[in-house]
């Protein structure tokens, strides 16, 4: 996915706002991917808040809010929601209520991407799959297929190549492994510029006929805003004629969790030791025979033991997840699936660096990852 830094017209840099960050995060982790009822988006603050420094964290814990205020962050981007159920009171004697009051008092914008970040390409589970060096990676459980739109725009012939390249660079025109997939039909466009217009071609008050090209291409729904914005910037006309049509075609499958193969088979114990080291944990627990050979691995950041059945159906030898309970793990073991149970935080912290890198490259503002230890568990 090609991303551009936020910039203004000419040499003057555009001042980044919370709305810009929300839009960029929607391109990285589209809201439409989130599970029904999930709490995501801007939860505290205002969209027009100027943003010069961003803090990234798993949770808007009181210590994280204090850190954001201390470093003078303008926006906090988290994975878990600060507000995940309706509030009836804000009790500032409680840690949660005090954190909320501090965020509002500091004019801190607080945003989160939860299950949409789990599911997104390059999100929580892709980061884990890459960390564990999985190959031939697939989705563990399909949750939906991406919706597609057909974009049709009418372009003067001399600007056709410029507009075509702009929309394709912004994410349009991808079919499988092919890019720049478009269809182009020459024709004649007509228009009559009214008073106060400044036409690229023709004169005010005179009916104009011009050679144009009808450019058609396909656009994933999550990329529509970016593609249209790029199209309008590249198009020479003062008023651009274009259409967007919904399609019944099934787009790319999206889903929770990932499954893939290890580069080399290894024992369960050796793989568990590797997971522990890569996650920076002092200890880890697993179920299954330590000497069992592991070839195929499923990963699901956060609470994922309920997806053991999908892992078994996809012939995984082991599922790496968190928050596992006795009965589900025992049942998975009887069905031949080993479980590695890491902590919830340990499996989700790695994505924070990825989000920080993305926002640095797309906003140009300072982005930091929290220094607060957000894992509530301590090993003894």
UniProtKB/TrEMBL annotation:
SUPFAM superfamilies noted in UniProt: NIF3 (NGG1p interacting factor 3)-like
Binding site residues for a divalent metal cation: 79-80, 118, 344, 348
Gene Ontology molecular function: metal ion binding
Keyword terms, alphabetized: Metal-binding
UniProt superkingdom: Bacteria
Keyword Lipid biosynthesis among record annotations: no
Keyword Transmembrane helix among record annotations: no
Similarity comment: family membership: Belongs to the GTP cyclohydrolase I type 2/NIF3 family.
Protein name, per record: GTP cyclohydrolase 1 type 2 homolog
Source organism (scientific name): Alicyclobacillus mengziensis
């Amino acid at each position: 996915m090609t991303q551009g830094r936020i910039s203004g017209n000419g040499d003057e840099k555009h001042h980044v706002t919370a709305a810009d960050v929300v839009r960029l995060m929607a391109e990285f982790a589209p809201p439409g991917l989130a599970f029904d009822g999930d709490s995501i988006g801007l939860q505290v603050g205002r969209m027009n808040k100027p943003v010069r420094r961003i803090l990234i964290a798993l949770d808007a814990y009181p210590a994280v809010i204090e850190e954001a205020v201390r470093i003078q962050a303008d926006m906090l981007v988290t994975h878990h929601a600060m507000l995940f159920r309706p509030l009836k009171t804000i009790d500032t004697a409680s840690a949660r209520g005090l954190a909320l009051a501090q965020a509002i008092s500091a004019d801190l914008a607080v945003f989160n991407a939860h299950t949409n970040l789990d599911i997104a390409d390059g999100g929580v589970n892709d980061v884990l799959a890459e960390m564990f060096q999985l190959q031939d990676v697939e989705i563990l459980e399909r949750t939906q297929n991406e919706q597609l739109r057909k974009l049709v725009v009418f372009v003067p012939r001399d600007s056709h190549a410029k507009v075509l390249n702009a929309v394709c660079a912004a994410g349009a025109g991808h079919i499988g492994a092919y890019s720049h997939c478009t269809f182009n039909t020459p024709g004649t466009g007509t228009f009559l510029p009214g008073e106060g217009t400044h036409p690229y071609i023709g004169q005010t008050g005179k009916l104009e006929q011009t050679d144009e090209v009808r450019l058609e291409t396909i656009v994933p729904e999550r990329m529509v805003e970016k593609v249209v914005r790029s199209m309008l910037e590249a198009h020479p006309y003062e008023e651009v004629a274009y259409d967007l049509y919904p399609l019944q075609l099934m787009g790319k499958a999206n889903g929770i969790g990932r499954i893939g193969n290890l580069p080399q088979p290894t024992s369960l114990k050796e793989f568990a030791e590797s997971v522990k080291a890569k996650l920076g944990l002092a200890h880890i627990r697993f179920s299954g025979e330590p000497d069992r050979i592991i070839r195929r691995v499923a990963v699901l950041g956060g609470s994922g033991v309920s997806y053991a059945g999908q892992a078994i159906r996809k012939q995984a030898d082991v599922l790496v997840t968190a928050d596992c309970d006795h009965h589900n793990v025992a049942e998975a073991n009887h069905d031949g699936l080993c479980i590695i149970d890491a902590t919830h935080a340990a499996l989700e912290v790695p994505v924070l660096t990825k989000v920080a890198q993305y926002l640095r490259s797309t906003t140009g503002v300072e982005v930091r990852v929290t220094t607060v230890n957000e894992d509530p568990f301590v090993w003894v």
